[in-house]
Amino acid sequence: MAPLLSIHPEDPQTRLIARSVEVFLAGGVVVYPTDSSYALGCQLGEKAALDRIRLIRRVGDKHNFTLVCRDLSEIATYARIDNQAYRQLKSLTPGPYTFVLSATKQVPRRLLHPKRRAIGIRVPDTPICRALLATLDQPILSTTLIMPGDTEPLDDPYEIRETIGHCVDLILDGGSCGKQPTTVVDMTREPPEIIRYGKGDAARLTGA
Questions:
Q1: Are 196 and 184 in contact (CB under 8 A)?
Q2: Which residues are 98's β-sheet partners?
């Protein structure tokens, strides 16, 4: 059964962040809180961990994962951003938005949209995520923690442990963080198209 670590949502303990990063670097699967919901995450390039997440979610190889990044400069390593997109992303990050962007060669082929070279990117606005990403020094490959047959993410860390504690390596308990997914905007289209309405303010997307 995976350990459950209670971490302060506003001032995350350094030792717990370090322990979490050790699990990521060892190829583990971590449940962690974001600014929209709990997520399943692993290190980019860890195929075995990615396959475990797919098994938990019961999704196929066409499921779209997201790269959770620290900031715009890290996004630019994995996605192509023109000046217009840069201005819009700058006004909306960090925040509860996922941006579908054309991927660079740094993104493994198995993570790309099946019909085009695109990847979802986001920069969450929580101290826990910022601390994890700064210490890990690379993006987290991530997906919302929605169980098969459910329409909303799991939000209770103890329920999460009871449900999938035997399938993951660590659960970070940052308290309730909500059940609303991110707003997703496809930046590969002109004009950009909102393809899922979620926690992010859609008016800011159309007005940015």
A1: yes
A2: 184
Q: How far apart are CA 93 and CA 5, in angstroms?
A: 27
Report yes or no: 128 and 172 within 8 Å, Cβ to Cβ.
Answer: yes
Cα(160)–Cα(157) distance, rounded to whole angstroms? 5
**Domain topology for 4-207:** DHBP synthase (3.90.870)
pTM of the model: 0.93
- Kind plus residue range of the DSSP H or E element containing 99: strand 97-102
Q: Characterize the bridge pairing of strands 30-33 and 38-43.
A: antiparallel
Contacts of 14 (CB under 8 A, 6+ apart): 131
Domain boundaries, the chain: 4-207
Q: Determine the angle formed by the axes of helices 127-136 and 14-25, rounding to 10 degrees.
A: 50
Q: Using the 8-state DSSP alphabet, how is residue 5 labeled?
A: E
Largest CA distance in the chain: 47
Q: How far apart are CA 118 and CA 187, in angstroms?
A: 10
Give 64-110 pLDDT, tens digit per residue.
889 999 999 899 899 999 888 889 899 999 999 999 999 998 888 87
**φ and ψ of 194, to 5 deg:** -75, 120
pLDDT top residue among 184 and 114: 184
Q: To which residue do tokens 């620290």 refer?
A: 70
